[in-house]
Amino acid sequence: MSVDELALSLGGRGRARLAWDCYSIGVDPAHFYGKVIQLGHDDFESILELLPTNRRSQRIGLEALEKLAGLYPGTGKIEGGVASLSHVTQSSDKTTKLLLRLADGLQVETVIIPWNSSRSTLCISSQVGCRQVRR
Asked: What is the dihedral of CA 84, 32, 109, 130, to 10 degrees?
């Protein structure tokens, strides 16, 4: 979905931009803003630092989260289905590294490389347990 299409689904461009910004750094908005899963203070703060400055004080709202959940089959969210976010870091060029814990407990690394304002490249490790994964 484009931001405009997401805005129609969520009832506003601000909510859509916030969800879009979460997705662009590899974070499920349902996990980050949802009431069911409680992030630790350090996890919340480290993810918050990755969001654009003008979005850090915004909240997506329960109604928008419910509408967003309706877009996903099954669990209603990305996080906790196939994989869960274990660790996230971002470099100065906005390249974001994600360490994902799979449902079986093994971990893989994913890298989101920004290309321009509307595109990114996603690289997913095909080797579980690769020794190059660092925390």
From this structure: -50
How far apart, in whole angstroms, are the C-alpha atoms of residue 71 and residue 66? 9
Instruction: Indicate the residue type of 1.
Output: M
Structure tokens at 10: 């969520």
State if pTM tops 0.70.
no
Condensed to tens digits (0 to 9), the pLDDT of residues 75-113 reads: 555 555 567 778 888 888 888 888 887 777 788 888 888
DSSP summary character for residue 27 = -
**Interaxial angle between packed helices 3-10 and 13-24, expressed in degrees from 0 to 180 and rounded to the nearest 10:** 120
Contact indicator for 84, 100 with CB cutoff of 8 Å: yes
Q: What is the pLDDT of residue 102?
A: 76
Helix or strand holding residue 131 (H, E): none
- Ranges of each domain in the chain: 1-78, 82-135
Backbone angles phi, psi at 32, to 5 degrees: -75, -45
Q: How far apart are the first and last CA of the chain?
A: 32
- Condensed to tens digits (0 to 9), the pLDDT of residues 36-53 reads 555 555 567 777 777 888
